[in-house]
Amino acid sequence: MREVMTKSMARNIFYGGSIFFILIFLGLSIHSHLYIVGTSTAATPLTDSVTRGKRIWEEHACINCHTLHGEGAYFAPEVGNVMTRWGVIDKPDDAFQTLKGWMEAQPTRIAGRRQMPRFHLTDNEIRDLANFLIWADKTDTKNWPPKDSG
User: Model pTM?
Assistant: First the structure.
């Protein structure tokens, strides 16, 4: 082997290495795409009600206090699995009634307890928010967050 690298040797190493790593990058990108499409989608499809519920979640900045699948502020409880914790995951009407009762009881004014503001949502908005939380609860999060309480 020569001790000096010629221009053509350097060029061939550069182009060969570049092509090799571009192929690895493309292969990993395709693998990631197929994995996400094939396994990480929600168990239930998006409906208009779920979309409206997500919009309500965003308009009222719920994520400023709550976490959803570990994302958001840690001031208030995790709500990504709240419907399972309440036992109403497969009962949309019960989920609506439970969420409505809980939200109407806010703020509780219990000493030493964090207070949630009252948003004065309509029944349809609460139903849409409940449907969004049910949809989020059915999303395959690969066991995240690690605790049931969030």
Answer: 0.73
